[in-house]
Amino acid sequence: MTWILGVNAPPTGWHDSAACLVNGDGEIIAFTEEERVNRHRHSLYRKPLGAARFCLAQAGITAADIDVVALGWDSEQLYPRRFANDADFLAYAVGLDFGNRPPEVVRVPHHQAHAASAFYASPFPKAGVLVIDGHGENESSTIWTFEDGAEPRQERSWQRTASLGYAYDAASTWLGFSFLNAGKTMGLAAYGRAARLEVEPLVDLTADDFGLAVEPLAESRGRATADEIKAQYDDTVGRWRERYTKIAGADGPRVPEERLTDDPNAVLVAYTAQRLIEQTVTHLAALTRKAAGVEELCLSGGVALNCSTNGTLPGPLYVPPVPHDAGVALGAAWTVRPPRRRVAALSPYLGSDVWAPDRLNGGEGAGIPGAGGPGTAGVPGSGGVPGAGGVPGAGGLSGPGRRGAGAGELDLSGLVRADLDIDVLTGLLLDGQVGAVAQGRAEVGPRALCRRSIIAVPYTADVNTRVNTLKNREQWRPFAGVTRPGYGAQLWEQQEYLSLYMLGAAKATALGRQVAPGVVHVDGTTRPQVLHGDEAPAVGAALDALERHGAPPVLLNTSFNDKGEPIVNTAADALRAFRAMDLDFLVLGDDLYRTPHRTGGAS
């Protein structure tokens, strides 16, 4: 069996490091972000050692079995002569002991890895692929044509400092956020849309190009080093910040972060940057479809996390569950060995089982009890989302091994346990309680897709306030809704693929605003998820039970994590977060936990 380990790893991939294991047929065996394992948000400057160990354990192999390590960057360009050889590089970037036969190292250009992760995860046999982020090695935006059985073709590229990512980073940092918190900028921008603000256009669109209000630098050469790119980034972002300062008449907000909606200048800057992204991406999407000669379109790169923009684009449109830099671990592996069989959109449930040990990076042992073995090596990662509950480790509502390995070591003190009864769970939800679900193998990517989620009924707007308080978030931040396909068609505009992974904003209908105000943002949109089958067993069953009870079958769904924390991964993570946020209940595998003083629910 051939094994390819894809990674996003330092020094090139210095944030959102990740590891993905595929076999000789291009099937995904395991894929997770390092932050889920080491519990450091975005895993800054950390190698994906824990993520890689998880992948090996899931396949029941050791590092010595790896044939190829595929990196989603050209590290030789960015850091010339930094490493004496590939073994030196692997020790720094990954940290596994590969034994006496180091694997081949394949360095895949960053945008090519992004593009591969989007196309091969999609259900399309041919598509135009648009990649937009801060920068790759030599570009900020690229257009590709991908087709099954053919070599991918790059159609267009734009220089690094013509970067939409840089422009949005500048707005985010002007607002006081990290560039890694661009989602806050997007959420704040909705207040400008709701107020129908008129904003200064920052892009000039021509028939087959675009020009930004902050002109790109005269880049001396295409193949820059990391130090040169950093200097260009600082220069370009600085000039964009000056532009936002001129627009706002201030060099930053006048109120603290939790009150940014009270500052007209903050809303203006956020919405100005958002409109720049929406106008330019819409234009580039049309150019991509024209270049590829087909309507099927895939998006990737960090800008593809901009749900508001995605929701404005016509279909057929696909965005993978991991469009940001963690996704190049998958794209690099698939560049080496594309999947042979693709029948539907990618299932995102490729991470650790909830009953895996609390830490996967604590020792050198390759085997992890309870995290899978040789019998799981054939799990296809390219299975469709509908019916994804058939993936081993999906965490069904009954069955042997319910608590799994390591459950006896968990701190369950002060909690009341019961077998999960969906009628009881539904009663708790209808009583207005807010709880969490941690079941089966975790979803990969930044969106919680109902296996590591906080849930509540969204029948009043007050639930938004309560959940933001529990999560220690700003009160102006929005939430997403989840339902079944039939009811979703009544609640919001339809999205064939974006709603698989909660990656597109959709306009709520009158019924949606009436029955689910807790998940409708100030601009009248929500970021929906639709569950097609048993891919998220407890949440899907709860939706069906709500409908049987005559209640609207829709739930608020947000990520199961406290402020500053990654989404929970293991049962131990879930219990810690449950206690820290003082939630009302916790569905952990097939168990339901509550604290003794909490009451309610059907009996």
Show unreliable segments.
Answer: 361-402
Dominant shape: globular
Number of helical elements: 17
How far the N terminus sits from the C terminus, by CA atoms, comes to 52 Å
Would you count the extended β strands for me? 22
Radius of gyration: 23 Å
Main sheet overview? 8 strands, mixed
What does this structure look like?
The protein is globular and about 65 Å long. The chain has an eight-stranded mixed sheet. Helix content is 30%, strand content 16%. The model is unreliable at 361-402 (pLDDT under 50). With 603 residues, it is an alpha/beta fold. A hairpin with a 5-residue loop joins strand 7 (141-147) and strand 8 (153-158).
Outline of this structure?
The chain has 603 residues and is α/β, with parallel strands linked by helices. Helices cover 30% and strands 16% of the residues. It has helices at residues 34-38, 49-59, 75-78, 86-93, 110-119, 164-174, 182-194, 226-248, 264-292, 307-310, 328-336, 422-430, 462-470, 485-491, 510-515, 537-548, 571-581; strands at 3-8, 18-23, 28-33, 68-71, 104-107, 126-132, 141-147, 153-158, 203-205, 210-212, 297-300, 317-318, 416-419, 435-438, 452-456, 480-483, 506-507, 525-526, 529-530, 554-559, 585-588, 591-594.
